[in-house]
Amino acid sequence: MTPFQAAFDRASLAFAAVLIVMTAIRINLLFMNPVGLGVDEAQYWAWSHSIEWGYFTKPPMIAWVIGATTAMFGDAEWAVRLGAPIAHAVAATALYLLGRSTYGAWPGFWAGISWLMLPGVFFSSSLISTDALLLPLWSVALFAMWRLMNTRAMAWAIVVGVFVGLGVLAKYAMLYFIVCTALAALWLEPMRQALGKGRAIVAGLIALLIVAPNIYWNVQNGFATARHTASNASLNLDDMFHFDELFEFIFGQAGVLGPLIFFALIWLIWRTVRRSDTNAIEDKFLFAYILPPFVFISIIAFVSRSNANWAAVAYPAIVVWLTGVLFATRNGRVVLFSAIALNMALGIFVAGVFTFNPAYANQFKNIRNAQGWSDTAQAIADRAVVAPGEPPFTAIMVDDRDLYFELNYHWRDLRRDGVPLPPLRMWLLHGEAENSAEQRDPMRTEEGARVLVVHQRAAYIPFVAGDFTVFRNVEHLAVSLGGGRSRDLEISVGEGFAPAVRDEAFRERVMRRDDD
To answer: What is the DSSP letter of 442?
Structure first.
């Protein structure tokens, strides 16, 4: 069958129809999403207004994508998040092509559909994140690597290099692809041959060329992004070996993949290990792109902590592998179709509850923390308006990263309408930037004549007060979040900003406060 014929056969047309419908539904659900931007989303939006080769905590791809979607459609929440459902559509397409190439047309169809129905993809399609942008790039690179192994065409080596490079600009977890490829080469002679004759060198040089500007940015900025990525592991030699964290990570995969796919994966891994000498080339290839991230993140979880999504790069190979193996037998197809149906039901149920029952959704901490920011921003803006005869505020200072980025986003319309808001600044507890807000807009002494101070971390008020020559607490502000919950802030006014020296005595006082 020619590529043209394959593009218009029944499997391709059926997949295209489902893909278009699902993506359209997910884009429409963005308009109905009652949850405001989370702090990370608001942070990425802020970055998108200054296009660079890197940012304090992430590579640049996410800011570029948000910059593109908001340039076309404005700064509403749905436009900020628009890249997510489109990215997952690209990932599903790449996995359809990979499944078709490895197991056949209809297994490819079900691989693409399985991806669209994963509970993690349902959730990820409703918000913008680095994982949402990484996974389509990984999926295309995985398909290109399979084609390179089977055709040994230099064109596929070029595609691998391009998408590995772009993947690194989305999230540094793309570097697992190199380790996975090395494992595949160890297991498979065809892979070793495919990487020979300069093809691996060409792919590597292209990827390095794409990533080079981000490397240079890190050099110029003290390796800020790389240091943040490494610090996420939070290794503490005095507190290691966490079986609870390991089990939470492992069984957390059931929530991302769906319960039936999770248990089917355990069976498939056991079967593959048990008959290691007789595994098909597809089994070895796909398993090579699953094992390294899972092993590495499991170790991190055991000695420190991890989140379930830290192994997200393994999911594309999992979906294609499971679909291909299960589709080959009648009983396997029963399990596969049941898993897809269950995942679809779970996705529809959760999406429906969160969209049409915000009071229930508000019981979850992460969702509750994203609520009420518009009201919070308006209440603080109202307090920045001075009474007649009073001197104006020279800055609004906040003591929390979440508060900074949410106010920065929700004040966009007020600024556009010409409301005279003072500049928004971030208080530096430690005297140097430890997050993106502190790096972006630290409080400056020249703006410290009269400052409206908003505290989200009340325990640090004495330390904030010590940075002003005159300081007084004004009021307690409670913003309703619904369901009997509120966001509690303290409002103060400081004059004569003159930061105290962040010496050893100061750090000891902070540590004692943290211990309390």
So the answer is: B
Q: Are 493 and 453 in contact (CB under 8 A)?
A: yes
Give the closest residue to 39 by CA, choosing from 458, 455, 366. 366
Taking a C-beta distance cutoff of 8 angstroms, is the pair 401, 436 a contact? yes
Per-residue pLDDT of 120-149, as tens digits, reads 999 999 999 999 999 999 999 999 999 999
Geometric angle at alpha carbon 203, from 54 and 206, rounded to 5°:
40
Enumerate residues 6+ apart whose C-beta is below 8 A from 315.
115, 118, 120, 135, 256, 257
Q: DSSP 3-state assignment of 395?
A: strand
Task: Tell me the C-alpha distance between 450 and 497, whole Å.
Answer: 8
Please tell me whether the overall predicted TM-score, pTM, comes out greater than 0.90 for this model: yes
| Cα 413 to Cα 315: distance, rounded to the nearest angstrom | 39
With H, G, I as helix, E, B as strand and everything else as coil, classify residue 472.
Answer: strand
Q: What is the pLDDT of residues 413-447, one digit of tens each?
A: 888 888 889 999 999 999 888 899 999 999 999 99
Contact 279, 321 (CB under 8 A): no
Q: Where are the beta strands (DSSP E) in 394-503?
A: 395-398, 424-426, 450-455, 468-482, 485-497
268 class by beta-carbon count within 10 Å (0-12 exposed, 13-18 middle, 19+ buried): buried
pLDDT < 50 stretches in the chain? none
Give the full edge-to-edge strand order of the sheet including 485-497.
Answer: 424-426, 395-398, 450-455, 485-497, 468-482
Torsion angle, alpha carbons of 302, 307, 312, 314, to 10: 10
Q: Nearest Cα to 206, choosing from 246, 248, 155, 242?
A: 155
| Cα–Cα distance measured from residue 59 to residue 454, given in angstroms and rounded to the nearest whole number | 30
425 bridge partner residues? 397
Cβ atoms of 134 and 40 closer than 8 Å = no
Closest CA to 373 of 411, 426, 414: 411
> For the chain, what's the residue count?
516
The C-alpha atoms of residue 420 and residue 417 are separated, in whole angstroms, by 9
C-alpha closest to that of 202 among 160, 172, 174: 160
Q: Could you give the CA distance from residue 473 to residue 74 in angstroms, rounded to a whole number?
A: 38
User: Letter for the amino acid at 310?
Assistant: W
3-state helix, strand, coil in the chain (%, to 5): 70, 10, 25
Beta bridge partners of 473: 492
